[in-house]
Amino acid sequence: MGDKSAMTMITRRKLFHSATAALPLGMLGAPGAAHAKLTGVHADIVVTHGNLLTMDTAAPKAEAMAITGHHIQAVGSNDDVANLIGPKTKVIDAAGMTVAPGFIDGHSHPVVPEHAVSANVNLPRIADVKEALRRQAAKTPPGHWVRGVMYDDTKFVDNRPLNLQDLDEAVPDHPVFVWHRGGHTGVINSKAFEVAGITLDTPDPVGGKYYRENGAFTGKVAELAIDPLYEHGTWPVIDREVRQDSVRVASTRMASYGLTSTTDAWGEGANLLALQDARAAGQLHFRVSFMPYGQDPVYQSLKDAGIYSGFGDDMLRIGAVKYAADGSASERTMRMSTPYLGRPDDYGILTMTQEAIDAAVDDAVAHRFRIGIHSNGDIAIDMALNAYERVLRKNSGRNPRYRLEHCSLINPGLLERIKKTGSIPFPFYTYAYFHGNKWTEYGEEKMEHMFAHRSFLDYGIPVAPASDYPPGPFEPMMAIQSMVTRQDTHGRVWGPGQRISVSEAMRICTVHGAYASFEENTKGSLTAGKLADFVILDKDPHSVDPHSIIDIKVVRTVMGGRTTYEA
Ligand SMILES: [Zn+2]
Known about the structure:
Blueprint: H1 2-20, H2 33-37, E1 45-48, E2 51-53, E3 61-62, E4 64-68, E5 71-76, H3 78-82, E6 90-93, E7 98-101, E8 103-104, E9 119-120, H4 126-138, E10 146-151, H5 164-170, E11 176-180, E12 185-188, H6 190-196, E13 208-213, E14 216-223, H7 240-256, E15 259-267, H8 269-280, E16 287-292, H9 297-304, E17 316-318, E18 321-324, H10 354-366, E19 371-375, H11 378-394, E20 403-406, H12 412-421, E21 424-426, H13 431-434, H14 443-447, H15 453-458, H16 476-485, H17 502-516, E22 534-537, E23 554-559, E24 562-566
Parallel strand pairs: 1-6, 2-7, 8-15, 9-10, 10-11, 15-16, 16-17, 18-19, 19-20, 20-21
Antiparallel strand pairs: 1-4, 2-3, 4-5, 7-22, 11-12, 12-14, 13-14, 22-23, 23-24
Helix pairs in contact: 4-5, 7-8, 10-11, 11-12, 16-17
Bound molecules: zinc ion.
């Protein structure tokens, strides 16, 4: 006991010293010392009477916390912070509710400008979708396209996908395109076929399809059949202003679910500009790690400017360069060593050769970029690890924390190599819950080795939190429930051997998220000296039925001492 508290003091003192260097004068503070020596240094905000789950192993539980400027000044008991409350201090009485570090999403695509100019049709009933499209049409000039986004064919209570008749009934006069959240398919109406000049006599383009049934279009269009649509009629303009607004919309929504940090995992130059524009306008409500896409001009531009990973500040920082080596988990195209269930010849697709991966890693290392390779299937993961092992043999040194984006299907051999190279996997954290209908094509055996949070933890691998929004939901409470129960919306359990505890899931969404971007010294836990990023939850995820964690409400989200959401 005595040893433990001595440890706590040392750890805290260390943090205190390391933190003060980065803090402006007048922001000194440390737990314990605060009320004894620093009277007069009042906090800007004090949270009291909370159930603080600090994620700080030195002091995992606390009641209260004081914040000055952007940082946490002290964490402790109500008494510890009492003397830090001055006349101008804002006191937030948590009334016994749970206070946790702000949630971090290590792989997401938050900048989707289409979302700012479209109807969001992520709705439970087809009738709701029709109503949303009707409203969007009412504010769309004649002849212009009406867009819907976030459609998912498998999620309606109606138990069927959206079709051409639905869209014709809702919007007869405008061309309509409803985009699937997976990004590879959509549904259009009769007016859209007419505007695009596509008739039943039109053949399907190579690599694309206009779905037909009983001699008529169903409305579904896929892959390269979508591209020609953009050449006809007038589409909503996506300009600099719209892009900025999409950041405002996304960060406002994500803050309302408790996220304080996210990642742009396929960064284009226009996104980087939009993030900066939103920030300048006071509309950026999350911190962002910007991962330039290796094939986008922005990557070359950053290299030319002499910028590499780590450049930026606590709000917007350049992360790893991103490449993609294979297909998708949810759209069933990832490259595996064994075939898909019921398709004995289908092993999925590779999108890079080993030589191309090696060259990308060499180039990133030469330019001091971290690298993240999208590798879903075990074959693709093996290839990414080959490249990481090869470059580590040449350049030994500190652990570069190379990223394995998704890293969906693993085996013991891969786990050993991930551990040995210090690589970080980013498996989908909401997929077991959200995409259940897709897992039948992998089967129970494979699902025991997919999104393998349990295996990663057992091997001591600091597995990172990853939504891959929009294909995957980003909501942290859904993520925690998904990782804890592995149960989908229909009650089926996928890979029960990969279940983890609530505490482990919360650690992944906070501490591991910070570690994955080399920011473990500034965020991820409620510790004096760290950024004041936290959430107040109406219930403790440890004390509810694990199947209702998703119903826990975020009462308040605070990023750097600023409230970004309040219920
Ligand atoms: Zn992604």
